[in-house]
Design a protein that fits this description.
Blueprint (H helix, E strand, L loop, with lengths): L5 H48 L47 H13 L1 H9 L1
Helix pairs in contact: 2-3
Length: about 120
């Protein structure tokens, strides 16, 4: 810049330094990410190697309860109240599309109370 003034030379030098600094930061950031990716690949390979080295029939033992556990107190036996259901014929064929919302809710409540009801229906 032979015919440039002092301010123009300073501005050009500042622009050049800024460009060099930004370029150097970009290369440093790329190098850092390259190292991060290499570490992640090494960890992944190490985990795969460890998983392959572990025997497949080695099942971790179940946690063992301490020997000094106090005995549970006997619970009071309260007879479970049987829920009252609407008069429903147990032998009727259940077709979900033919049932009302209340009937579906009633059958669901009955099935929760007695699972054998569901098994019998499946068998039929």
């Amino acid at each position: 810049m032979p015919g440039a003034s002092k301010e123009e030379r300073r501005a050009a030098a500042a622009d050049r330094q800024l460009h060099e600094r930004v370029t150097a930061q970009g290369w440093a950031r790329e190098h850092e990410w390259e190292q991060v990716r290499a570490r992640q690949a090494a960890v992944k390979a190490h985990r795969a190697e460890a998983a392959a080295a572990q025997p497949t029939d080695d099942v971790p033992a179940a946690p063992v309860a301490p020997d000094a556990m106090p005995a549970p107190l006997p619970a009071a036996v309260v007879p479970a109240a049987e829920p009252e259901f609407a008069d429903v014929d147990d032998d009727q064929e259940l077709v979900l599309e033919d049932l009302t919302r209340e009937q579906v809710l009633d059958w669901r409540t009955r099935a929760v109370a007695d699972h054998q009801l569901v098994f019998d229906h499946i068998d039929r």
